Amino acid sequence: MVETDQFIEDAVAEIREEIGSANAIIALSGGVDSSVAAALAHEAVGDQLVPVYVDTGLMRKGETDEIRETFAYMDRLRIVSAQDRFLEALTGVTDPEEKRHVIGEQFIREFEREAHSSDAEYLVQGTIYPDRIESDGNIKSHHNVGGLPDVVDFEGIVEPVRELYKDEVREVARALGLESVVSERMPFPGPGLAVRIIGEVTEEKVEIAREATAVVEDELEAYEPWQAFAAVLGKATGVKGDNRVHGHVVAVRSVESRDGMTARAQPLDWEVLQRIQSRITGTLPNVSRVLYDVTHKPPATIEYE
Ligand code: XMP
Protein backbone atom coordinates (compact mmCIF):
# COMPACT_ATOMS: atom_id res chain seq x y z
CA MET A 1 0.00 0.00 0.00
CA VAL A 2 2.98 2.28 0.60
CA GLU A 3 3.82 1.85 -3.06
CA THR A 4 0.25 2.66 -4.10
CA ASP A 5 0.21 5.79 -1.96
CA GLN A 6 3.53 6.83 -3.42
CA PHE A 7 2.21 6.20 -6.92
CA ILE A 8 -0.77 8.47 -6.25
CA GLU A 9 1.37 11.22 -4.81
CA ASP A 10 3.76 11.11 -7.76
CA ALA A 11 1.00 10.88 -10.36
CA VAL A 12 -0.87 13.86 -8.91
CA ALA A 13 2.32 15.95 -8.80
CA GLU A 14 3.17 14.99 -12.37
CA ILE A 15 -0.30 15.85 -13.67
CA ARG A 16 -0.25 19.19 -11.86
CA GLU A 17 3.08 20.01 -13.39
CA GLU A 18 1.99 19.02 -16.90
CA ILE A 19 -1.36 20.77 -16.93
CA GLY A 20 -0.43 23.83 -14.89
CA SER A 21 -3.25 26.36 -14.93
CA ALA A 22 -4.80 25.14 -18.22
CA ASN A 23 -8.06 23.24 -18.69
CA ALA A 24 -8.08 19.51 -19.29
CA ILE A 25 -10.72 17.13 -20.55
CA ILE A 26 -11.21 13.41 -20.03
CA ALA A 27 -13.62 10.94 -21.57
CA LEU A 28 -15.10 8.79 -18.81
CA SER A 29 -16.06 5.35 -20.03
CA GLY A 30 -17.55 3.99 -16.84
CA GLY A 31 -14.59 1.64 -16.44
CA VAL A 32 -11.98 1.63 -13.72
CA ASP A 33 -9.12 2.94 -15.92
CA SER A 34 -10.66 6.23 -16.97
CA SER A 35 -12.28 6.62 -13.54
CA VAL A 36 -8.89 6.39 -11.84
CA ALA A 37 -7.29 8.73 -14.38
CA ALA A 38 -10.12 11.22 -13.78
CA ALA A 39 -9.88 10.98 -9.99
CA LEU A 40 -6.11 11.54 -10.12
CA ALA A 41 -6.49 14.47 -12.51
CA HIS A 42 -9.25 16.01 -10.42
CA GLU A 43 -7.08 15.68 -7.34
CA ALA A 44 -4.32 17.46 -9.24
CA VAL A 45 -6.18 20.29 -10.97
CA GLY A 46 -9.71 20.34 -9.49
CA ASP A 47 -12.26 22.20 -11.57
CA GLN A 48 -9.84 22.75 -14.42
CA LEU A 49 -10.86 19.20 -15.33
CA VAL A 50 -13.90 18.63 -17.54
CA PRO A 51 -15.00 14.97 -17.32
CA VAL A 52 -17.20 13.97 -20.25
CA TYR A 53 -19.28 10.82 -20.32
CA VAL A 54 -20.88 9.93 -23.64
CA ASP A 55 -23.89 7.68 -23.21
CA THR A 56 -23.64 5.67 -26.42
CA GLY A 57 -26.66 3.55 -25.52
CA LEU A 58 -24.25 0.60 -25.58
CA MET A 59 -23.45 0.72 -21.88
CA ARG A 60 -24.18 -1.79 -19.14
CA LYS A 61 -27.38 -1.67 -17.12
CA GLY A 62 -27.36 1.21 -14.64
CA GLU A 63 -23.92 2.43 -15.73
CA THR A 64 -24.92 5.97 -16.62
CA ASP A 65 -26.62 6.51 -13.26
CA GLU A 66 -23.60 5.12 -11.45
CA ILE A 67 -21.32 7.52 -13.29
CA ARG A 68 -23.60 10.42 -12.45
CA GLU A 69 -23.45 9.51 -8.75
CA THR A 70 -19.78 8.56 -8.55
CA PHE A 71 -18.54 11.73 -10.22
CA ALA A 72 -21.15 14.12 -8.86
CA TYR A 73 -18.36 15.72 -6.81
CA MET A 74 -16.73 16.96 -10.02
CA ASP A 75 -18.50 20.24 -10.77
CA ARG A 76 -17.85 20.23 -14.49
CA LEU A 77 -19.11 16.69 -15.22
CA ARG A 78 -20.95 16.52 -18.53
CA ILE A 79 -23.20 13.66 -19.56
CA VAL A 80 -23.96 13.53 -23.27
CA SER A 81 -27.04 11.57 -24.35
CA ALA A 82 -26.04 10.22 -27.74
CA GLN A 83 -27.95 6.91 -27.82
CA ASP A 84 -30.02 7.73 -30.91
CA ARG A 85 -27.07 9.02 -32.88
CA PHE A 86 -25.03 5.87 -32.23
CA LEU A 87 -27.88 3.56 -33.14
CA GLU A 88 -28.51 5.45 -36.33
CA ALA A 89 -24.83 5.39 -37.31
CA LEU A 90 -24.79 1.61 -36.76
CA THR A 91 -27.81 0.87 -38.92
CA GLY A 92 -26.91 -1.68 -41.60
CA VAL A 93 -23.34 -2.16 -40.32
CA THR A 94 -22.46 -5.85 -39.99
CA ASP A 95 -18.67 -6.08 -40.42
CA PRO A 96 -16.91 -6.20 -37.01
CA GLU A 97 -14.10 -3.80 -37.85
CA GLU A 98 -16.47 -1.40 -39.57
CA LYS A 99 -18.69 -1.51 -36.50
CA ARG A 100 -15.75 -0.52 -34.30
CA HIS A 101 -14.80 2.18 -36.77
CA VAL A 102 -18.31 3.68 -36.89
CA ILE A 103 -18.52 3.75 -33.10
CA GLY A 104 -15.03 5.26 -32.81
CA GLU A 105 -15.90 7.97 -35.35
CA GLN A 106 -19.18 8.82 -33.70
CA PHE A 107 -17.46 8.95 -30.33
CA ILE A 108 -14.84 11.34 -31.69
CA ARG A 109 -17.54 13.61 -33.11
CA GLU A 110 -19.35 13.73 -29.75
CA PHE A 111 -16.15 14.28 -27.83
CA GLU A 112 -14.76 16.86 -30.24
CA ARG A 113 -17.80 19.05 -29.72
CA GLU A 114 -17.35 18.92 -25.96
CA ALA A 115 -13.61 19.53 -26.20
CA HIS A 116 -14.09 22.65 -28.31
CA SER A 117 -16.64 24.13 -25.99
CA SER A 118 -14.53 23.43 -22.90
CA ASP A 119 -11.35 25.24 -24.02
CA ALA A 120 -9.35 22.24 -22.89
CA GLU A 121 -5.69 22.29 -23.83
CA TYR A 122 -4.90 18.92 -22.33
CA LEU A 123 -6.40 15.51 -22.87
CA VAL A 124 -6.28 13.05 -19.98
CA GLN A 125 -6.64 9.38 -20.95
CA GLY A 126 -7.00 6.19 -18.91
CA THR A 127 -4.75 4.16 -21.21
CA ILE A 128 -3.16 1.25 -19.34
CA TYR A 129 -0.14 -0.82 -20.28
CA PRO A 130 -1.91 -3.74 -22.05
CA ASP A 131 -3.93 -1.28 -24.19
CA ARG A 132 -0.71 0.01 -25.67
CA ILE A 133 0.66 -3.46 -26.35
CA GLU A 134 -2.49 -4.65 -28.13
CA SER A 135 -2.84 -1.44 -30.07
CA ASP A 136 0.79 -1.49 -31.18
CA GLY A 137 0.33 -5.05 -32.36
CA ASN A 138 -2.80 -3.94 -34.19
CA ILE A 139 -4.74 -6.92 -32.92
CA LYS A 140 -7.92 -4.92 -32.97
CA SER A 141 -8.78 -1.26 -33.30
CA HIS A 142 -9.25 0.07 -29.78
CA HIS A 143 -11.24 3.21 -29.98
CA ASN A 144 -9.85 4.58 -26.75
CA VAL A 145 -6.25 4.62 -27.95
CA GLY A 146 -5.19 7.05 -30.65
CA GLY A 147 -7.84 8.85 -32.66
CA LEU A 148 -8.84 11.41 -30.10
CA PRO A 149 -5.60 13.40 -29.98
CA ASP A 150 -5.71 13.94 -33.75
CA VAL A 151 -9.07 15.68 -33.92
CA VAL A 152 -8.47 18.43 -31.43
CA ASP A 153 -5.19 20.24 -31.28
CA PHE A 154 -4.29 19.46 -27.69
CA GLU A 155 -1.24 20.96 -26.07
CA GLY A 156 -0.50 17.60 -24.50
CA ILE A 157 -1.80 14.17 -23.60
CA VAL A 158 -1.66 13.04 -20.00
CA GLU A 159 -1.83 9.31 -19.29
CA PRO A 160 -1.36 8.82 -15.56
CA VAL A 161 -1.93 5.04 -15.49
CA ARG A 162 -0.03 4.19 -18.68
CA GLU A 163 2.45 1.90 -16.90
CA LEU A 164 -0.10 -0.05 -14.84
CA TYR A 165 -1.81 -3.39 -15.28
CA LYS A 166 -5.50 -3.69 -14.51
CA ASP A 167 -5.01 -5.18 -11.04
CA GLU A 168 -2.70 -2.31 -10.14
CA VAL A 169 -5.26 0.21 -11.40
CA ARG A 170 -7.82 -1.42 -9.09
CA GLU A 171 -5.44 -1.06 -6.14
CA VAL A 172 -5.08 2.63 -6.90
CA ALA A 173 -8.87 2.93 -7.22
CA ARG A 174 -9.34 1.41 -3.76
CA ALA A 175 -6.65 3.65 -2.27
CA LEU A 176 -8.37 6.67 -3.82
CA GLY A 177 -11.60 5.63 -2.14
CA LEU A 178 -13.53 5.12 -5.38
CA GLU A 179 -16.70 3.16 -4.79
CA SER A 180 -16.46 -0.58 -5.25
CA VAL A 181 -18.88 -0.51 -8.21
CA VAL A 182 -16.05 1.30 -9.96
CA SER A 183 -12.92 -0.24 -8.44
CA GLU A 184 -14.12 -3.84 -8.78
CA ARG A 185 -15.96 -3.38 -12.05
CA MET A 186 -15.18 -5.83 -14.79
CA PRO A 187 -13.40 -4.47 -17.85
CA PHE A 188 -15.78 -3.31 -20.55
CA PRO A 189 -14.81 -2.70 -24.16
CA GLY A 190 -14.86 0.84 -25.55
CA PRO A 191 -17.41 -0.08 -28.26
CA GLY A 192 -19.61 -1.46 -25.49
CA LEU A 193 -22.36 -3.98 -26.04
CA ALA A 194 -21.93 -3.63 -29.82
CA VAL A 195 -19.02 -6.11 -29.78
CA ARG A 196 -21.24 -8.57 -27.92
CA ILE A 197 -23.72 -8.62 -30.77
CA ILE A 198 -22.93 -10.54 -33.91
CA GLY A 199 -24.10 -8.72 -37.02
CA GLU A 200 -26.19 -5.57 -37.10
CA VAL A 201 -26.74 -3.71 -33.84
CA THR A 202 -30.43 -3.10 -33.20
CA GLU A 203 -32.23 -1.70 -30.18
CA GLU A 204 -33.73 -5.13 -29.51
CA LYS A 205 -30.38 -6.92 -29.49
CA VAL A 206 -28.76 -4.25 -27.34
CA GLU A 207 -31.54 -4.65 -24.81
CA ILE A 208 -31.04 -8.43 -24.73
CA ALA A 209 -27.26 -8.07 -24.35
CA ARG A 210 -27.75 -5.54 -21.55
CA GLU A 211 -30.37 -7.47 -19.57
CA ALA A 212 -28.69 -10.86 -20.03
CA THR A 213 -25.29 -9.42 -19.07
CA ALA A 214 -26.80 -8.04 -15.86
CA VAL A 215 -28.07 -11.55 -15.02
CA VAL A 216 -24.68 -13.13 -15.77
CA GLU A 217 -22.75 -10.55 -13.73
CA ASP A 218 -25.13 -11.06 -10.83
CA GLU A 219 -25.05 -14.87 -10.87
CA LEU A 220 -21.30 -15.19 -11.36
CA GLU A 221 -20.04 -12.62 -8.88
CA ALA A 222 -18.88 -15.35 -6.49
CA TYR A 223 -16.61 -16.85 -9.16
CA GLU A 224 -14.72 -13.53 -9.35
CA PRO A 225 -14.30 -13.69 -13.12
CA TRP A 226 -12.08 -11.24 -14.97
CA GLN A 227 -15.08 -10.73 -17.23
CA ALA A 228 -18.48 -12.35 -17.40
CA PHE A 229 -21.18 -11.31 -19.81
CA ALA A 230 -23.76 -12.37 -22.36
CA ALA A 231 -23.57 -12.00 -26.13
CA VAL A 232 -26.27 -12.16 -28.79
CA LEU A 233 -25.31 -14.56 -31.54
CA GLY A 234 -28.18 -15.00 -33.98
CA LYS A 235 -31.53 -16.74 -34.10
CA ALA A 236 -32.69 -20.31 -33.61
CA THR A 237 -35.96 -22.15 -33.23
CA GLY A 238 -37.41 -22.80 -29.79
CA VAL A 239 -40.76 -23.50 -28.10
CA LYS A 240 -42.33 -21.09 -25.68
CA GLY A 241 -45.70 -22.03 -24.24
CA ASP A 242 -47.42 -23.88 -27.09
CA ASN A 243 -45.68 -21.96 -29.84
CA ARG A 244 -42.58 -22.42 -31.87
CA VAL A 245 -40.59 -19.21 -31.76
CA HIS A 246 -37.66 -17.97 -33.77
CA GLY A 247 -35.79 -16.47 -30.85
CA HIS A 248 -32.35 -15.05 -30.19
CA VAL A 249 -29.45 -17.24 -29.12
CA VAL A 250 -27.53 -15.87 -26.15
CA ALA A 251 -23.99 -17.00 -25.31
CA VAL A 252 -22.71 -16.74 -21.75
CA ARG A 253 -19.00 -16.07 -21.38
CA SER A 254 -16.98 -16.05 -18.17
CA VAL A 255 -13.19 -15.88 -18.21
CA GLU A 256 -10.20 -15.63 -15.91
CA SER A 257 -7.30 -13.45 -16.96
CA ARG A 258 -4.66 -11.07 -15.64
CA ASP A 259 -4.52 -8.56 -18.45
CA GLY A 260 -6.99 -9.67 -21.11
CA MET A 261 -4.22 -10.73 -23.48
CA THR A 262 -4.86 -14.40 -22.79
CA ALA A 263 -7.82 -15.86 -20.91
CA ARG A 264 -9.27 -19.15 -19.64
CA ALA A 265 -12.94 -20.01 -19.85
CA GLN A 266 -14.12 -20.64 -16.28
CA PRO A 267 -15.47 -23.99 -15.11
CA LEU A 268 -18.97 -23.27 -13.75
CA ASP A 269 -21.44 -25.35 -11.81
CA TRP A 270 -24.32 -26.82 -13.76
CA GLU A 271 -26.86 -25.37 -11.29
CA VAL A 272 -25.56 -21.86 -11.84
CA LEU A 273 -25.61 -22.28 -15.59
CA GLN A 274 -29.19 -23.55 -15.41
CA ARG A 275 -30.21 -20.64 -13.20
CA ILE A 276 -28.70 -18.18 -15.68
CA GLN A 277 -30.50 -19.93 -18.53
CA SER A 278 -33.79 -19.88 -16.72
CA ARG A 279 -33.54 -16.22 -15.68
CA ILE A 280 -32.58 -15.12 -19.20
CA THR A 281 -35.20 -17.10 -21.10
CA GLY A 282 -37.77 -16.36 -18.38
CA THR A 283 -37.39 -12.60 -18.48
CA LEU A 284 -36.61 -12.09 -22.15
CA PRO A 285 -39.47 -13.50 -24.27
CA ASN A 286 -37.46 -13.12 -27.49
CA VAL A 287 -34.61 -15.39 -26.30
CA SER A 288 -35.05 -19.09 -27.01
CA ARG A 289 -31.63 -20.56 -26.26
CA VAL A 290 -28.65 -20.02 -23.96
CA LEU A 291 -25.17 -21.47 -24.56
CA TYR A 292 -21.99 -21.46 -22.48
CA ASP A 293 -18.76 -20.59 -24.30
CA VAL A 294 -15.97 -22.96 -23.21
CA THR A 295 -13.26 -21.50 -25.48
CA HIS A 296 -10.05 -20.05 -24.06
CA LYS A 297 -8.19 -17.07 -25.57
CA PRO A 298 -6.47 -18.03 -27.79
CA PRO A 299 -7.96 -19.32 -30.03
CA ALA A 300 -11.07 -17.17 -29.30
CA THR A 301 -11.01 -13.55 -28.20
CA ILE A 302 -12.83 -12.50 -25.07
CA GLU A 303 -15.37 -10.37 -26.91
CA TYR A 304 -17.25 -11.57 -29.98
CA GLU A 305 -16.43 -8.94 -32.59
P1 XMP B 1 -10.51 -9.36 -26.80
O1 XMP B 1 -11.93 -9.47 -27.20
O2 XMP B 1 -9.64 -8.73 -27.84
O3 XMP B 1 -10.48 -8.37 -25.54
O4 XMP B 1 -9.95 -10.66 -26.30
C1 XMP B 1 -9.39 -8.20 -24.67
C2 XMP B 1 -9.81 -7.22 -23.61
O5 XMP B 1 -9.97 -5.91 -24.19
C3 XMP B 1 -11.30 -5.48 -24.07
N1 XMP B 1 -11.61 -4.81 -25.33
C4 XMP B 1 -11.59 -3.49 -25.49
N2 XMP B 1 -11.35 -2.50 -24.62
N3 XMP B 1 -11.69 -0.91 -26.33
C5 XMP B 1 -11.42 -1.22 -25.04
O6 XMP B 1 -11.22 -0.32 -24.24
C6 XMP B 1 -11.93 -1.85 -27.27
O7 XMP B 1 -12.17 -1.55 -28.44
C7 XMP B 1 -11.88 -3.21 -26.82
N4 XMP B 1 -12.06 -4.39 -27.44
C8 XMP B 1 -11.90 -5.36 -26.51
C9 XMP B 1 -12.12 -6.71 -23.79
O8 XMP B 1 -13.32 -6.40 -23.08
C10 XMP B 1 -11.16 -7.54 -22.98
O9 XMP B 1 -11.11 -7.12 -21.63
Task: Summarize the entry for a quick read.
It is built from 11 helices and 9 strands. 40% of the residues are buried.
Strand and helix map with partners:
Layout: H1 2-19, E1 24-28, H2 32-45, E2 49-55, H3 63-70, E3 78-81, H4 83-90, H5 96-118, E4 122-124, H6 129-136, H7 148-151, E5 156-158, H8 166-175, H9 180-183, H10 203-220, E6 227-240, E7 243-256, E8 264-265, H11 270-283, E9 287-292
Parallel strand pairs: 1-2, 1-4, 2-3, 4-5, 7-9
Antiparallel strand pairs: 6-7, 7-8
Helix pairs in contact: 1-2, 1-8, 2-8, 4-5, 10-11
The structure holds xanthosine-5'-monophosphate.
Give a description of the structure.
- By secondary structure, the protein is of the alpha/beta class.
- Helices cover 42% and strands 19% of the residues.
- It is built from eleven helices and nine strands.
- The chain has a five-stranded parallel sheet, with helices on both faces.
- Helix 2 crosses helix 8.
- The radius of gyration is 20 Å and the shape is globular.
- The structure holds xanthosine-5'-monophosphate.
- InterPro entries: GMP_synth_C (IPR001674), GMP_synthase_B (IPR026598), GMPS_ATP_PPase_dom (IPR025777), NAD/GMP_synthase (IPR022310), Rossmann-like_a/b/a_fold (IPR014729).
- Catalyzes the synthesis of GMP from XMP.
- Residues 2-185 form the GMPS ATP-PPase domain.
